[in-house]
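To assess whether the prediction recovers the assembly geometry, we first specified each molecular entity separately, as shown.
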Amino acid sequence: MMGQDILEHLKKTSIFSGLTDEALSDVARSASARKVAKGDILMKKGEVGDSLFLIQQGWVKIVTEDSKGDELIINKCGPGETIGEMALLDRSPRSATVIALEDAEVVELKQDVFEKVLNQRPDVSLSIIRSYSDRLRFSTTYIEKAIDWAQKIAEGDYSFIDQTQPVMSNAKSDDDKATQLLSAFFTMVRRVKEREEGLKQQLEKLTFEIDQARRKQEFEEITSTEFYSRLKEQAKALRQKRLNE
Amino acid sequence: MKGKIVSIHSFRGGTGKSNTTANLAAQVAMAGKRVGVVDTDIQSPGIHVLFGLDEDKMGKTLNDFLHDKATIREIGFPIGENASGAAGRAKLAGKNLWLFPSSIRGREISQILKEGIDFNRLNEGLQSTIKEFDLDYLFIDTHPGLNEETLLSIATSDILIIILRPDQQDLQGTSVTVDIARSLDVPNLILMVNKALPKYDFVELRKDIESKFNAPVAGILPLSFDLADNASNDLFSLSTPDHEWSRSLREVAQAVLTLG
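The predicted structure of the complete assembly is given in tokenized form:
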């Protein structure tokens, strides 16, 4: 029962998505079940990661620290979710700390065990390379689009929201980070647009009234002088002269 | 007649007139035109600061010309050959732009104010400036209000740009200036609104002002802390071209170029 469970979960994990059931069984066999107590630290931010965890039962929190050093919960994960999958191949430092919120059961796939499978089965290696390549291509395409959209937003052009949305449904899996980013991006643009429209409506109208009697009086005060009459004559002559030149 | 005389006027002080004049002249020079800027604000000259000309570098002035002590040729200060000291001004290097400054010496200022300016002498000066420097545009920075010198420069203008802030007093005063300009047969009248609070609806404001004066509003420039922060140290539309103020100023410069 549990072996079948692991197989089903691994199938949904994006880097294994191209594997046959038979190859996946080999991977699943190299995994081991672990019990975790409430408060146990599954992985620590900054440490080099060397295993993937598949949550069977219970919930964990993914945390980091804010600028003051206080705990900041980024996310919570529960049964059927995978954490740390990239560590199987790249040995990168963990980007966050994972702590069990309650007594939990996880399946751990260690990198050294996993590498043995890769050595024995070139088909598994190739399939994983393909899945990485797919993800990379997918991400690159959307990064390029995001750059293009960001430029449009800067110019105040939001028309792409309506034109581009259908592309979103082509996303390959629910947990794809690119899809999450795009979804957040579109939400952001929609909110910015709404706020901007709200602000436009709030623009105040400014109107003036000119005191026509005062206008006439001041005009007459200036134009009734001898200086002005002479100036008007001189200006008229000047314009006539320039016209003829 | 080739060169156009463009007078920049405002009914009250503090509208940003000298700053606007300097930036407009710079933009028109950047468009490849031959441009002169005359400071006829002899009571309170100031435009030379924007072009980086200080008292030490200032030679003969408009006052000397009006007293027959200097020729036009002698008072023209070539900005394109002295474009340095600030990032915006540096862009004017090699451009055909001359400044004809007014004296900043107190004694010379009071002397000319006492004697008054002769229309024919000033007009002769402006005409020979255009001829001798082969100018496409001669910008005149005037003293605010409607005193005699200002009326003189309005009377000689081909294009009059009136700068106003969107407030009751400026609009009332502008209405009189518009009537004077029409009475003196100024061929082209352009309005420019400066220091408009961004919370106002600029589209509606433009419509309202245009219908009241029956004259085009070539640009509405926002009140800007960035511009105030520049504190006359540089030509803002050249140093900060992407700012909304600079964009709107270029629209006004374009309106001037279209009339040329």
